[in-house]
């Protein structure tokens, strides 16, 4: 498999992970077990952003790009459209902290609403019949 394809696949995986971190809580409305995967991912994404740590996928992607002889992210659909979403130009530490806080706020709101809906559904359920 060519290294440029591996780099693009890594970038796609990276983008999918970022989207899952931000919006994955919404899947829990349909599939409750998603919570067990999403919460650790969201926590990881928030910690990376708040601490200013690089995502482990970044060096993997850069490694494949270097092996492919590519400089930067020039060329191709993935490199042109997806990479700027993952690595915005002008990213400051303040923006990075803001993104971490946004991840926490979005997911806290989604899970608070989900928890309220689950509790309301439990209250509406009839009590089980008592047997003698």
Task: List its traits.
mainly alpha; 0% strand; 5 helices
In short:
The protein is built from 5 helices and no strands. It is an all-alpha fold.
Structure description:
The chain has 132 residues and is an all-alpha fold. The chain has helices at residues 3-23, 35-51, 57-67, 77-86, 93-124. The protein has one domain. It has five helices and no strands. It starts with a helix and ends in an 8-residue tail after the last helix.
Biggest sheet, open or closed, and with what strands and sense? none
Low-confidence stretches: 73-78
Oligomer: single chain
How far apart lie the N and C ends?
68 Å
The assigned structural class equals mainly alpha
Measured by DSSP, the beta-strand proportion falls in under 5%
N-to-C order of helices and strands:
HHHHH
What's the arrangement of secondary structure elements?
Elements: H1 3-23, H2 35-51, H3 57-67, H4 77-86, H5 93-124
Helix pairs in contact: 1-2, 1-3, 1-4, 2-5
